[in-house]
Design a protein that fits this description.
Strand 6 and strand 7 (75-79) form a beta hairpin. The relative contact order is 0.14. Helix 4 (111-120) packs parallel to helix 6 and helix 5 (127-137) packs across helix 6. The strands form 3 sheets. The chain has a 4-stranded mixed beta sheet, sandwiched between helices. Strands 2-7-6 form a 3-stranded antiparallel beta sheet. Helix content is 36%, strand content 25%. The chain contains 7 helices and 10 strands. It is elongated and about 70 Å long. The protein is α+β, with helices and mostly antiparallel strands and 207 residues long. The chain has 2 domains: 9-90, no CATH class; 95-202, no CATH class. The longest helix is centred in the C-terminal third of the chain and has 22 residues, at 162-183.
């Protein structure tokens, strides 16, 4: 997955496209790559802005006080990190996972992935482990704010292909559980609880 750190990134949009969106008086979005899109938004629309801009205002102030905007000929340069809380709000319903709270990731966006996570937890596999695999192996976007001193991180993950993500997680969990059963004394076949046996069977592991 590609990391898009709002503390560092400047979004570049075409002035012509933004002007058309503003003049439309419709709710529109500006994606992380600067493209303009309109409702209904999909899982592929990772937005740094959503709303109806004030067409009576110049671009520098039309999107609200939390956006730093510079018009450079036919380009509009936007810094959006100050609006992070609102960005979480209008992106979270479409995100594959939400890593913006102190509790970390505690759910995934589809029932299929949730079932994988729930069964995998019987063998100590955490949602953080699953998210690390998604970020490593799947195409998508992690929109975040991340700084080093003092360290701060909040992010929303968007996987491009949810079916691929499901398959990646299933394969990872199956291999990890097979490894645990064969190497970890706590998970020897004869010691497995009913819940652990059910979880193993969910991943197609013969007990």
């Amino acid at each position: 997955m590609n990391k898009f750190n709002l503390f560092k990134e400047i979004i570049v949009a075409k002035k012509e496209d933004l002007q058309e969106a503003v003049d439309s008086s419709k709710t529109f979005g500006i994606q992380v790559d600067g493209k303009v899109c309109y409702e209904p938004f999909t899982i592929h629309d990772v937005l740094i802005y959503k709303g109806i801009a004030d067409k009576e205002m110049p671009f520098e102030s039309a999107f609200g006080k939390n956006y730093q905007v510079v018009v450079d000929n036919e380009r509009v340069l936007i810094k959006a990190f100050a609006n992070w809380q609102e960005i979480i709000g209008f992106n979270a319903p479409r995100a594959t996972y939400n890593d913006t709270t102190s509790d970390g990731v505690d759910e995934l966006s589809t029932k299929e992935m949730e079932n994988i996570g729930w069964h995998a937890s019987e063998f100590g596999i955490k949602y953080r482990d699953l998210v690390d695999i998604l970020e490593e192996q799947c195409e998508g976007t992690l929109i975040c704010i991340e700084q080093e001193d003092p360290y701060q991180f909040s992010g929303l993950g968007f996987v491009d292909d949810l079916n691929e993500a499901r398959d990646v997680l299933f394969t990872f969990c199956k291999k990890e559980i097979e490894r645990l059963i064969s190497t970890d004394d706590d998970f020897k076949k004869e010691k497995l609880s009913d819940d652990e046996k059910e979880a193993a069977e969910f991943f197609g592991i013969a007990i």
